[in-house]
Amino acid sequence: MSKIPQSSGLKPASKITGRPLRTIIENNSNKSKEAPACLTRLNPIFSHAMRRRSKSVTDMRQIGSKPITDFRLLKSNALKKDIQNENKLRGINKVTEKNQVKTALTKSVGTKRTATASTNNIEGPPKPKVSKKIPDWDYKGRFHQLNEKFTHVQESMKIMKDKMNEFEEIETNYDKIKIEAKELGEAKDSLKKKCEDLSTENEKLKEEVDKLQNNLNLLENNHKELQQSASTLTEKNTKLTEENAIQTKDIIRLTDSLNELTDLHTKLTKEHEELTKSHQKLVQKYQTYFEGNKQLLMSLDSANEKIKRFEEQTEQQKKDLNHFQAERRRLHNVIQDLKGNIRVFCRIRPPINSSEMNLLQCSISFVDNNGLEIRKTRESISQITGKPQEFKGDFTFDRVFPPESTQEEVFEDLAQLVQSALDGYNVCVFAYGQTGSGKTHTMQGGEGPDQRGMIPRTIDLIFETIKELNSSGWTYTVQASFLEIYNENIRDLLNINNTQKLEIYNNEGKGSTVTNLTIQPIESAVELKQYMSLAHRNRATAATNFNEHSSRSHAVTKIYIEGTLEDQNTVLRGSINLVDLAGSESAKITINDERLTETKNINKSLATLGDVISALFSKSKHIPYRNSKLTYLLQSCLGGNSKTLMVVNIAPFEECFNESINSLRFAAKVKEVKTGSKRNKMTFAQPAMKF
Ligand SMILES: Nc1ncnc2c1ncn2[C@@H]1O[C@H](COP(=O)(O)OP(=O)(O)OP(=O)(O)O)[C@@H](O)[C@H]1O
Fold it and tell me: How far is the CA of 539 from the centre of ligand 1 (A)?
């Protein structure tokens, strides 16, 4: 317990802040004005204590130093009680409460210190001015001065009286405060004890807190581990959920399949039952049949023997058939030979429209199927002899076809030559005649199945006959080429961009070949017709005026046929040339140089054709095949090993009369020629003939 000296300059240190107490008093004196209103409002006891303390301090100054701590204890207890009551009402905790008490105490001490300080500076009334020494003779002045002194003393007396009263009151308060201080000391002791109890309890609590902290750390670690295992488990759970979904789908699918299989099983069970029943029936039947079968087996043995005999007979019949076929081929050829190796048909075309109907028609009369007489309807008088001119001609051919003849009728005889080509002969079919006389119509034909010309009909017949011959062991390969000769130049109609040299060369006994020409293997009639159309289109593409061009060039379709009969080691190679010749009109009617050259070339080739045929007719040693590309190309078809058919086409108009007569004369000349034919037959032992 420190004591506050009344007048010493030492400043006791504060227990709360550690600073000298004087400083606190000064600082708090400044803050006292700002003391919380609640504190002053709530604490009437404190105010009372303050007043008492002021008095007791004054007393202390008078009676000596008094321990201030007792006074503070008294005050703090009173303060504390008030604050506790208030806080109970407000629900404020103990720590806050402690702070409130501390603050209140500090402020109250500050306030008292200020009050004490103010009482230490007691001043009396202002002293009367000391005037200059009043002379002794100035009674009036001296009286006035004394009067002033008296008044001053009176006032001082009055002040002192007041002070005395105040000090008495302070003394009374001091006693009360002393009692309160005693009470506060007792309270402090009990608080101290409580505090010690509390600190002991606090220690225990601390230990418990440490234990709990350790437990908490352990629990946190456990929690972390549990969290990790929870996340692992969550992942596993996700995976398992996904797997579960897949398996669920599988289960659904399998269930469906199971249902289907169950249905199937039910069906199959039913079927099985039915089959078992029918099996039983069949077993019964089998037993019945088994008995019968024994007999049948016996009959089978005899039947097998019969079959064997039939097979031997069939083999013999096959041989006979081949023999008969060979004989048929021989006889067919004899017939063809008898008909002539060069056959000439004449076909007169009809007028096809009204303008042609209005043209003057020749008078044509037909004798049987072979002869015709053609004449102009009006005879003219010869300017030289003055006699009527004979404008008529009588001609005989292998066949004459009047205007109403159908394509089928014309093809009848050609069909026999197609058989010759399949039998291994070279066949050549020409369409001869002036422009517009019906050559292309005869060879290609028109629209519709009935209007098909010789070429498409030949194609169809070849493949039909091959089909029949296949059944008797023959196999055939077919190839085709398409070319045109224009102004003595050869063009490949299956490849118009073919810039390689197309040259004819002729091997003795092996026929004529064109170098670099496209020779297309053909599998069917349809395919061959497709190539025929391509060639026709290519011929049209190359020409600026197709109709004119077509009448100024020779178009040659060649079909190569090779038949093999392996049993007999026999190969037959034949060919068919189908030639649509250029128009045969004479050079007189040509109008320009270009056309003149064309006509000359055409006439040269046609004349050479006539010369070749004449040479063959006269059995000349030299046959002028090489004089034109056409005859050179067709050499193998015009010689001994060939069959030739020439169809001379005639337009029925009088204006065409002279050209018609020329054509008929040419054809008649050809008709006279006969060739000695020889079939291209060989066995595998010999080298195959090249086309
Ligand atoms: N027998 C026929 N029956 C019906 N029409 C025919 C007959 N012959 C020819 N024609 C028709 O006469 C016209 C001329 O015939 P085509 O073109 O065949 O003559 P071409 O001699 O080939 O002429 P080019 O030398 O110019 O080619 C064509 O319209 C053709 O359809």
Answer: 17
H-only helix segments in 340-390:
354-358
Instruction: Report helix, strand or coil for 271.
Output: helix
Instruction: Residue 580: name the closest of 447, 482, 443 by CA.
Output: 443
Q: Determine which residue's CA is closest to atom 26 belonging to ligand 1.
A: 551
Pocket test for ligand 1, best of 349, 434, 589, 595 (most atoms within 8 A of CB): 349
ipTM of the complex: 0.97
Ligand-binding site membership of 433 (annotated): yes
Range scoring the smallest mean pLDDT among 56-60, 193-197, 595-599 = 56-60
Annotated binding residue 435: yes
Structure tokens at 89: 């009402």
In 302-350 the beta strands, taken as DSSP E runs, fall at: 342-348
CA–CA dist 361, 652 (Å, integer): 6
For the chain, first and last CA: distance in Å? 152
- Tell me how far the alpha carbon of residue 429 lies from the centroid of ligand 1, in angstroms: 17
Pairing between β-strand 426-433 and β-strand 570-580 as defined by DSSP bridges: parallel
Q: How is residue 65 written in tokens?
A: 């130093």
User: Does the annotation flag 434 for ligand binding?
Assistant: yes
Ordered structural domains, the chain, with CATH: 21-119+136-202 (no CATH), 340-683 (3.40.850.10)
Contact (Cβ atoms closer than 8 angstroms) between residue 600 and residue 587: yes
**108-163 tens-digit pLDDT:** 444 444 444 444 444 555 665 555 678 888 888 888 888 988 999 999 999 999 99
Q: For the chain, how long is the longest CA-to-CA vector?
A: 223
Q: Residue 563 annotated as binding?
A: no
- The chain-wide mean pLDDT, for the chain, equals 78
* Cβ contact 595:545 at 8 Å: no
Residue-level pLDDT at 286: 81
Neighbours of 9 (CB within 10 A): 6
3-state DSSP call for residue 496? coil
pLDDT tens-digit profile of 270-301?
A: 988 998 888 888 888 888 878 888 888 888 88
Residues with CB under 6 A from ligand 1: 349-350, 352, 433, 435-441, 446, 547, 550-551, 583, 649
Which pair of structure tokens corresponds to residue 61?
A: 């100054």
Distances (CA, A) of 1 to 7, 12, 14: 18, 11, 11
C-alpha of residue 443 to centroid of ligand 1, in Å: 10
Please give the helix or strand (H or E) that residue 300 lies within, else none: helix 139-339
